[in-house]
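Subject: Sanity check before I submit

Could someone independently write out the structure tokens for this chain? I want to compare against mine line by line before I put it in a report. The sequence has 259 residues.
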Amino acid sequence: MIKSFIALIVSIIVVHMFYIGYVRPEAYALIEIAQASGLSSPRDVVVILKDYEQEICFILMLWGCFLISVNYREILKTKYLFSVDLIEEHHNNNPDADQNGQETGLDVHGIIDKLDQQIPKDCLSSPLVQTLRSSLWRYAATQNVQNLSDAIDSNLDALAVRQDSENTMIRYLIWAIPSIGFIGTVRGIGQALSQADQALAGNISGMTNSLGVAFNSTLVALLISIFLMFLFHQLQRLQDSQILDTQAYCEKFLLSRIK
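---
Independent answer below. Compare away.
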């Protein structure tokens, strides 16, 4: 929460400084030159981006990119765990032993101790490690293979629910950005209608400039929304892949060794 709030403040500062330092001075200079020549506002990039709705959209875009990148990082930094056999060193070839779950051929408590002590701290909260720990504790307590399998399934379901909950703010931003663009559209059309008398008198520059505000805000908002939606779908693909990889890992390295 604190990091997200700081990222939002930084986004506001960076975008606003860019706007007051370059975008708006350059845009107003171009508009003044066009008006002095009796022409309508030019279609330069800075003119399209100069309004407040576009500025808010860029602020939300940077914030949304931060939220998505955090989730990217959390998934990618633990992806190497899927290629490591975390329970290989604690496999017991004596299936007749009757302590610590070793009748299955696995030293359950040894595996849990290894996960707690040897896994890097920043990886202890990874879905794979949490699923293994929870499932092994359930099995150590009940000595029931079905409980082990149910624990894996319940952990995967909880992971899917948690990921969906964490994506709520990103979904809101993807929805809010086009809405802000439509607000600019309404504002621009309202300004254009208020200048209808000037247009009837033959001066249509004010109306065209206001309509430019309306269409520019919608254009920028939709483009930003498309970009964020692409990043969000890539994130969802990674999250779904993480769930499937966790399930496949448990089946390959854990369930297949239960005798």
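---
OP: Matches mine. For the report I'm noting this point. Residues 91-104 have pLDDT under 50 and may be disordered.
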